[in-house]
Amino acid sequence: RYMRFIYIVIKRIIDFIAALILLVLLSPLLLIISIIIKIDSKGPVIFKQQRVGKNGRIFNLYKFRSMSASNNPLDFKEENKITKVGHFIRKWSIDELPQLINIIKGDMAFIGPRPWMKEYHVYMTDEQKHRSDVLPGITGYAQTKGRNNISIINKINFDLEYVHKISLWMDIKIIFLTIATVFSRDG
Questions:
Q1: Which of 24, 88, 137, 170 lies deepest, with the highest CB count within 10 Å?
Q2: Residues linked to residue 10 through DSSP beta bridges, in sequence order
């Protein structure tokens, strides 16, 4: 238990420093993407959505907007299609880059279970809600197992497996598996 606590503290420090460095290094790219999104469609550049974080705390998750500004995530009408730029930034997971701000703020980590919308979180069992015992991540174990090609139950089970086995080795494994998944564009 003590070693786990130490690991989580060290992980938070590393996440903070790495996110800050990446945000500075990627700022020209982030600016270019922001301009392209603004040219491509009307609406804000950044999409904010309430998600469930560690210990059930609600926070605003940031992403580059990839859908029309009128999009409601629970509404699947024709006018809520993904924009031209949105297809590209989703395909390469570029839409996730603003979550570096979430990491700096302490809402998220690089590695952890993906944060769920609160509307879905309420339907989880008490056991399933243990996936919120750690900071949610930009990527996680479930994303390396098929991203959107696996069932919700399997995603939750992979998230719980991560929470129970959290370690430096597990995080390193997830980083390499995530890179392979993004470049294979699987799921």
A1: 137
A2: none
d(CA 98, CA 89): 12
| Window from 32-41, 83-92, 130-139 with minimum mean pLDDT | 83-92
Burial group, residue 46, by CB count within 10 angstroms (0-12, 13-18, 19+): middle
Closest CA to 63 of 21, 34, 24, 42: 34
- Look at residue 139 and give its three-state secondary structure: strand
Res. 171: pLDDT tops 50: yes
pTM over 0.85: yes
Q: At what angle do helices 2-40 and 84-91 cross, to 10 degrees?
A: 150
- pLDDT for residue 78 is more than 70: no
Residue 58 in tokens: 């609600």
**DSSP H helical ranges for 45-167:** 84-91, 99-105, 118-121, 141-144, 152-165
Q: CB of 62 within 8 A of CB of 53?
A: no
- At 180 the pLDDT is 87
Torsions phi, psi of 59, nearest 5? Answer: -145, 165
Which tokens is 1 given?
A: 């238990």
SS3 18: helix
Interior/surface letters 4-20, b for 16+ CB within 10 angstroms, e for the rest: eeeeeeebeeebeeebe
Beta strand pairing status for 46-52 and 58-64?
Answer: antiparallel
